[in-house]
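Data card: per-record layout.
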Amino acid sequence: MSASAGGEKQLIGHARPLMASFLRTYLVGAAFNTRGMQNVGLVFAMEPGLEAIYPDPEKREAARRRYLSHYNTHLFWTPLLVGVFLSLEDKISRGLFPPSVLESVKDTTVYTLSAIGDSVLSGSLLVFWSLSTAVLVAAGAGWAALAWGALWFTALQLFKLTTFLMGYKEGLRLISRLRQWNLINWGRRLKVINAFVLTLLLYQLWPADKNPAQWLAGALALVLFSWLVSRRHVSRELLILLLLVVWWCTPWLQKTLGSMF
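The structure for this 261-residue chain is written out next.
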């Protein structure tokens, strides 16, 4: 029997505890604490799988203690990590890996995925969903916005389930394959797309008697502000204050320039 076939058979045999562990990943943040962050929730999610892997209570207790140290990552990645951890625990229980391998995987993977999750998933993908939903609402397509949200919600659940199963079946191989997903560059592309969607939203929200020159000036100002914040590290608060001052002085400037010319 091939390695992949053996993994498939093992997955089917542990289907019930695996699904219990997956469902518990939705509650990882429920016991958040300032010392271990999400560690209590992680142990809670791992417990059904550990019971199937370690029938001996003493060995299960030793495995459980490996997850009581500090743990904190983006919640969208938790199912994948729980799947990988269960895969490693299965191999540790059969003597294929030493227990120390788990700590090295946690140290090098958890926080990397946390940063990717904050940048790509929360900082790009969720922003795209919220901006595109706002565009639909501004266009009067409320039902389309609702359906769009339901589609993304369903896609998120499928993403969690798929990555959980992949994590359990592939283990460390999946960690290596994550580099091939090129998520950082996809996040950058999404940020560019978000800029265009935001421009469309500003056009929709502009007053009915749109002045193309004013709209273009506002769009260019937004691009300039984004560049100053991201590249020159100018304070957002300072730029907002400058924008309010310009907006407040605009009628006076128009009146002054009109009287001069």
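Known properties of this structure: The chain is about 80% helix and 0% strand. The mean pLDDT is 84.

See the next section for split statistics.
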